[in-house]
């Protein structure tokens, strides 16, 4: 069984434990063997995910981290403490991805912590399909089908996250309660697949090009928030991985400095859904690598 398959099975196990109400509410222990200085970062991640989804989700976070504790690369070295801390911090941030449910959770927490003194009047704009993606797939599919027929999937709607009155607070409580269904949602399935692929690429870098591991870890910062920025970041990340990282790891692209290539490609990114500049940069990097390999073979 691959690490990716193992991660998916772990996610499903924790999903059903949470749904059936059988979840242990005790936070998971810090995993043994953490690099020096990582304890606080991992502890913060555990508490973030306890608040975001619950103990079982925090346990999934710990299990994912355990894959890299003491894991050696081709050079016989393990991931250094700084890089491991970045991995732990960015994975926690990505697992606690922002959706309407999370915004409601945060606004309620601010309201409750201030005993009602902090009042939110925030309004966020979501596409219809973004809101529906937070529902379980069995409920989301027929709604998405109707929206598609109407041509409304990308239509935007303003959602208030208000705590200025009792009705607004009650509405936020209902939205926050939907976290119980989050792990059944279309969005969660997409996020789970992305996290597993990101971790897989880090693991492959450790074996193929250990010097590229910190850069591969840091690519998680490309994906943030929701809406257009989120979708562009996700598309750009996949373009770089599919165009540079994966073919290098597969042996199809003779790229000796993957870290530098990723940084060069990221520097070319513009807020363009067509990815013209990024695709051009990736093509140029690939062409240089192939030409250099051909020249070396001809000598």
Report on the architecture of this protein:
With 299 residues, the protein is mainly α. The chain has a domain at 100-182. It is built from 14 helices and 2 strands. It has helices spanning 3-19, 39-52, 55-66, 81-95, 100-113, 128-132, 137-150, 166-177, 179-182, 186-208, 213-218, 227-250, 258-267, 276-298, and strands at residues 121-127, 156-162. It is globular, with a radius of gyration of 21 Å.
Q: Can you describe this structure in just a few lines?
A:
With 299 residues, the protein is mainly alpha-helical. The protein is built from 14 helices and two strands. It has helices at 3-19, 39-52, 55-66, 81-95, 100-113, 128-132, 137-150, 166-177, 179-182, 186-208, 213-218, 227-250, 258-267, 276-298; strands at residues 121-127, 156-162.
Shape: globular
Q: What kind of sheet is the major sheet?
A: 2 strands, antiparallel
| Secondary-structure class | mainly alpha
What spatial order of strands do you see in the largest sheet? 1-2
Task: Report the strand count.
Answer: 2
How large is the share of residues in beta strands? under 5%
Question: Count of DSSP helices?
Answer: 14
Distance between the termini: 43 Å
